[in-house]
Amino acid sequence: MNAVVRRRHFANLVSRTLILAATLLVLAFLVWICGVLLYEGFSAFKPTLFTEMTPPPGESGGLANAIVGSLMLVGVAMFVATPIGLLAGTYLNEYGKGTWLASVVRFVNDVLLAKPSILAGLFVYEIIVAPMGSFSGWAGSAALAIIAIPVVVRTTEDMMNLVPNSMREAAYALGASRSRVILSVSYRAARVGITTGVILAVARISGETAPLLFTSLNNQFWSTDMSHSIANLPVMIFQFAMNPYPDWQALAWAGALLITLTILALSIISRVFLRSANSQH
Amino acid sequence: MTLVNNRTKAHDETAGEFQRPPRFLNGEAFNKTFKWLSIGAALFVLMILGGFFVSLTIGAWPALKQFGFGFIWSSDWNPVTEKFGALPAIAGTLITSGIAILLAVPLAFAIAVYITQLAPKWLRHPLGIAIELLAAIPSIIYGMWGLFFFAPMFADYVQGPIINLFENVPVLSTIFEGPAIGIGMATAGIVLAVMILPFIASVMRDVIDTVPKRLKESGFAIGATDWEVTKAIIIPHCRTGLAGSIFLGLGRALGETMAVTFIIGNANRITASIFAPGNTIASTIANEFQEAYTEIHSSSLIALGLLLFIITFIVLAIARMMLNRIST
After folding, report:
1. Residue range B110-139, pLDDT digits in tens
2. CATH class assigned to B27-327
3. Mind telling me how many Å the CA of B246 is from chain A's nearest CA?
């Protein structure tokens, strides 16, 4: 081998080694974070998490009110975000294709998808919390809905885009109106994919903390009244983790594990859904 | 059963189980309503972005009126004297995001290259899933890990030695100055790097996947090594897309709130040392918003939000334009 070839192969070897080392380093961080979360979370895990309220410092308790509050906040948010996101995605793929309005909406939606979530909290604070004069569950749901809508819009458009045009044309040929084609052909063919989008949106918002700080806040007590501040897992984790009491910190880790496992389960479900959606085409 | 399964499923679901829908669905009135509902929802997406800008501007108005452009240049942030300047928060945001990008981009690129080019076929899919798992972990968990596990270790094994090492070196001793307490801007930057890395890596992976196979194969055919193909074919071909993915990561880093709030130390001052506690725009808002009792204080915090909105809008718009160019 001459010197040039040897140098080239050496450079190749060095780069391959560095790339492999970088990948291993990142995987090590992943293992570290997940390991810490699993260890701390499962050490604090007990069945009473689901039955008892969040305790005052120094006493044992659970997360029941925070779990219920989080479910309500996410549920209301998705109840609002799903139809809006679905319809906007429908516009982008079925009505607006190729128009300037659709490109602007698509662009804005992509920007919103990556916007810092804390801004959604400030926005909702300005338009709902400040005028009403109090933190409320409704405001928290509104902030989460604003974060969820772009996710639903994006996946709806992508998934409806996969529906073959020949299917739409067949329906038109039978004399179906445009809305009928969308409802009975596009939606039905893309429904698995669209459901995936909704699941992904739930996964995206269930761990969001920053937007809830200024909107729903938190509540130490049992609360199902959406017009007042309401207990929820992310803000509870934040407040408990920042405090020195070991009981609270343990509960924060248990809550963190609960949220991460939920998000993990949702991602797995959406992946399975997506695979069955893709196999259709 | 097997006969049915051999037909395409999509065909089955639309045509197979046909039921007559309610009659009104065929009417012209419904047709029109549905179209306008869709357009309305699309306009609503635009209104969200417009609403962000308008409401934040209105909320920030008292502070902007009182401090003018000096708000951006002043480094004085003091709720007691009611003087508010954004410079410490802006500086902290830029420093932490800068550290994060510097660390995350090479690592993300390495992973993207490994997954798309070097890894054995069976490993590519699981690795991709692992990266997406890292992206799905909520930021508050990164914050807790950073505060309770990463920061103490960083203080003992990295900060301390570095501070001692550069003690007598002129410039470096100012950059790496201070007690090794673990929390501060460097720690926040590193945790941010771990957080944005999976986002950058997965976009880069998609971008690298757009390189036509024949380009790479012609490289290998003339005897180029893996690294030479990466350097001379993949990077030039994907330049715009790779830059777009970096901007996308930057947009995330600039606005990341919870993880940074845990570990940055919440100090409203500017120091030359990256080991010192600081604040970012987002962490200042998260830390102080509930305790802002005067109008000018909360208005100043919303002005910070407006600033963050404008900065991230520009960064994300650049990212989108770069990434859209490759997909078309």
Report:
1. 999 999 999 999 999 899 888 988 888 999
2. mainly alpha
3. 13
